[in-house]
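Folding Query — how this chain folds
Tokens — whole-number codes for backbone shape
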Amino acid sequence: MNAMKKLVLASASPRRRALLHQIGLQFEVKESGVIEDDAPDVSPQDYVISLSKKKASVIALKEVNAIVIGADTIVVINNKSLGKPSTHREAVTMLTALSGRTHSVYTGFTLVDMPSHKSVSAFEVTKVTFRTLDKDEIRAYVDSGSPMDKAGAYGIQDDYGAVFVEKVDGCFYNVVGFPLAKFYITLKEFQQQLGFGN
């Protein structure tokens, strides 16, 4: 896929960078600095879309001619949203809650074009089932430090995270941090709306 304008990813996530490179996109990275607060009393999809809009909009105001990409991912279980753990104890609590159960991963993303200020947003949801984890497994994973920058305190692409997951129902890449198929289609259609062909 060819991007017709400069792309800017408003995220410091190494996983999102890797996924966009995977589909051949070239882009700049500029962290938005938007604080990811606990989800308010809105639906998970509304929350991730709202936060993705905030992230994209902050960076878009600094761009003259570019398409800015904002994104946010949360894990939801029993109607409770799990963001990134702030402490090791919180990571243990999150993984214990996910053990032996099915949860949902929501990612929202927003594209903002400058200078037109036109934008489009979308979201993806994937259901993930964990096998039952023992305390030693959870502790070893948390002690590795890997869960600390990830929603729900795990990365499906990690050594441990990969063996925690028993089943994935939906887009795998969404669980990694970015729904590639939906993003690809959305970006392609957005560029066409902006008059850039394919």
Observations:
- The two ends are 8 Å apart (CA to CA).
- The longest helix spans residues 44-60.
